[in-house]
Amino acid sequence: MFATSLIVFRETLEAALFVGIVAAATRAIPGRGRWISGGVMAGFAGALLLAAGMEQISAWADGIGQELLNIGILCIALAMLGWHCIWVSTHAGEMVRQAKNLGAQAQIVHESGHESEHSSGHPSLWALTTAIALSVLREGAETVLFVAGISSGASGNAMHVSASVSLGLLAGALLGGLIYLGLARVRTQYVFAVTNVLILALAGSLASQLAKALVQSGLIVQPSTPVWDASSWLANGSSFGTLLHALIGYDASPSSVQLMFYVGAVVLIGLATRLAKSRRLSPPASVAIA
Q1: Separation of alpha carbons 118 and 37, rounded Å
Q2: Residue 232 DSSP label
Q3: Distance separating alpha carbons of residues 12 and 258, to the nearest angstrom
Q4: How confident is the model at residue 1 (pLDDT cuts 50, 70, 90)?
Q5: Residue 199 phi/psi, 5° resolution?
Q6: HSE of 259 in the Cβ direction (CA atoms, 13 Å)?
Q7: CA dihedral defined by 88, 93, 97, 102, rounded to 10 degrees?
Q8: DSSP class per residue in 82-126
Q9: pLDDT tens for residues 47-103?
Q10: Which residues contact 33 (CB under 8 A, 6 or more apart)?
Q11: Is 221's pLDDT higher than 90?
């Protein structure tokens, strides 16, 4: 059952890394724990509902309903990550100042029992909570469907399946937590730059997955030959390949469409972020007095 543990580990790690990077990126925002937890719980509940109705969903649109739903989820999550990168680039300074006062603010909130005015309706949190929910929904639904398929074909081995799934879940969550702890040790003035790079890589990964989903649905056509094949050096199913896939969307044999989507998403978000930052930092034009 090692293969079962590895697949569950991969799905769990992708969701755990996503949540961990978001938690590190928003650690300067009071009350962000409730938003992140809410996104995880909403995604988990959605994953169960999605898995329960997958048979009906798959029958939509002449049998490509599942692919179309996956495309929609990826598009929204990609848009949310792009929005976060742009927003953080234009508000990093104030978030650093806010982080320095976080302890005092948290103490005031604890003593007064009232929320800080900065802890509700935060634009970046709205975007990232949505992205978290969609990430957990996707990975969770895939895990539930995979486990259900394994269980139906493994009569008499329910305990082995349960143990394999539990091991995969635990290992994925543990590694994701360790990476978050590593990010949490980064100094405040650098954490937004570090997490923005990681979130940009996640956006590229989602764009690559979007390209694959578009090909699988038949909406676009790709060449049959991959751009390169590094499977003999670092296979997708290896431990390090799994980690790189979760972190930056590594694929040992990517298609030209995947590369185009990956690079295109990173470049577009990077350019939009730079433009937004330059506009915010540029002084207002002076008005000539006649």
Answers
A1: 18
A2: T
A3: 23
A4: low
A5: -70, -35
A6: 10
A7: 10
A8: HHHHHHHHHHHHHHHHHHHTHHHHHHHHHHH----GGGSS-HHHH
A9: 888 878 877 777 776 777 778 888 888 888 888 888 877 776 666 555 555 555 544
A10: none
A11: no
